[in-house]
Amino acid sequence: MPVMTFETSRLLARPLEPSDHEAFHRIWGDLRVIWWGATPDAAASARKLDEILERVRHMPAGQGWFAVVEKASGVIVGDVVLAPYVAEPDLELGWHFVFDGWGHGYATEASRALVRYAFERVAAVRLVADIVPENVRSMRLAARLGMHPIGDRVRASLPHVVLALERAEAEAAPWWPDALVSS
Ligand SMILES: CC(C)(COP(=O)(O)OP(=O)(O)OC[C@H]1O[C@@H](n2cnc3c(N)ncnc32)[C@H](O)[C@@H]1OP(=O)(O)O)[C@@H](O)C(=O)NCCC(=O)NCCS
Fold it and tell me: Where are the domains of the chain?
């Protein structure tokens, strides 16, 4: 069973827990971040977190939702996701960061580490992300990971671009060796 923690120079990722509900609400309760379905009050966020953690319990070993903690402050600055995708054996990547934490490279740093974690520790074959094209920051993040479009898909009634990343592509990226400080 893979150890579900990983570190970068500035960040620590570990499994999201029920006690993270306040930090989770700072992300999922913020319409500037989760514009397609924010949870409006703290109770709704707590229920959403419970639903997510229930889904995670049924995921294969090593997959799930990770809290991303800024090591210097101990504060949760975001979450990243590695989860089953509709088309097996692809695994889906996700990322959601607190609004005030945007623009520091945290999402890129955490997601690159998640990519390496996924290929090395969970033996992922291919990683995918469904992104609404107007979600420019998310598209830029996917590009920084080296993801490339492979198709389209309607999800929650919204057209999404499907982007993918193979292991060989990630391993050839200049950031791969530094993606994790410990692996
Ligand atoms: C998508 C999301 C995670 C991207 O956050 P982000 O902060 O823009 O992404 P990064 O961590 O890659 O940061 C990149 C920015 O930090 C800057 N930066 C500053 N210091 C940096 C550093 N040390 N290293 C790298 N980049 C750095 C970069 O120049 C870049 O700036 P720019 O936005 O002006 O181009 C964020 O916008 C978000 O949470 N969105 C809502 C959730 C969402 O849409 N999720 C996806 C659903 S499909």
Answer: 6-125
- Architecture, CATH, for domain 6-125: 3-Layer(aba) Sandwich (3.40)
Burial of 153 (0-12, 13-18, 19+ CB in 10 A): middle
pLDDT in tens, 5-40: 999 999 999 999 999 999 999 999 999 999 888 998
Structure tokens at 182: 């410990």
Structure confidence at residue 133 (pLDDT): 96
Q: Is 170 helix (H, G, I), strand (E, B) or coil?
A: helix
Task: Measure the CA–CA gap between 123 and 17, rounded to whole angstroms.
Answer: 24
Which of 68, 95, 136, 154 maximizes ligand 1 atoms within 8 Å of its Cβ, making it the mutation to test the pocket? 95
pLDDT(115) > 50: yes
**Residue linked to tokens 């500037």:** 32
Nearest to residue 45, comparing CAs of 27, 63, 72?
Answer: 27
